[in-house]
Amino acid sequence: MALDMVHPELREALGQFPDIDFTQIPLDLIRSQPMMPPLEAPFPQPVERIIPGVDGNPDVKVFIVDPNPGATDRPAVLHIHGGGYVFGTAESMIAGVQASAMAAGIPFVSVEYRLAPETNFAGSLADNYAALVWLAGEGAKELGVDPARIAVGGESAGGGHSAMLAIAARDRGGPAIAFQMLTYPMIDDRTGSSREVAAHLGEFVWKAEHNRFGWESLLGQAPGGDSTPEGAIIPSRVDDLAGLPPAWIGCGALDLFIEENLAYASRLIAAGVPTEVTVTPGAYHGFDGFVATSGPSQKFAAARLSALKRGLGLPE
Fold first, then answer.
1. What residue numbers bound the domain in which 126 lies?
2. Where are the transmembrane segments (predicted)?
3. How many domains are contained in the chain?
């Protein structure tokens, strides 16, 4: 039934996507799959940098993608890659960052944060927070960025990390974030564990069992329980969302995360946070990356870019 609900332009790609079983395939093997190479010129080429860690944490690698080197007084995006909190790298996903930076015409900085389960939520948040501090400080001076116009954003787990970072920056009185660009963000550990979803949601690509593995790896305990680890920020469980940056949330209607994403958007709106939502009918998790040239993907990407430009005060 769910396959019939998939948009016709997105069906064929499903046959090319492997069914990942975290209980049978070693995580190291999943992580060792070939990386997607960077896009060649005229796309801006990534520049690797090492920046200082915070609070005694190790230094952090970032990749700077700047389509207009030497420009000044401009916004920037801090990008956080996806991968269910357990795989993926900034380097292997840099092609999408290059395309986004070129489309927006502003620098993107992508963070090589530490992955779970080797590092729990505290370590990944420290890495992402270090990148935000650097971009709002020394990085802003180096790249000609206005520190008052920094957005955070990412896909899937990267969207979850971005939402966590926005909450942490608010609570710590850290660098101001102007906008959140949350692409099908992974923000609720209860989805697929203590909270069931409709049978047709999450049938493709990222499933309930994947979600349980990712969250358990990040939190160090079974997800969906009544209590959460001290210090962990799970966006959908945060009581007070007031004062967070304006947000765009985009998701496919067949994505496992659609219900948690819509619920989070509703709560942001109720808290007085300007929030825009894009829902793509017939789309599953990651559809815009797997079939980037399809009509639904192009409309989704255009909506995201338009929201980002408005959020950062760029001409559309």
1. 2-311
2. none
3. 1
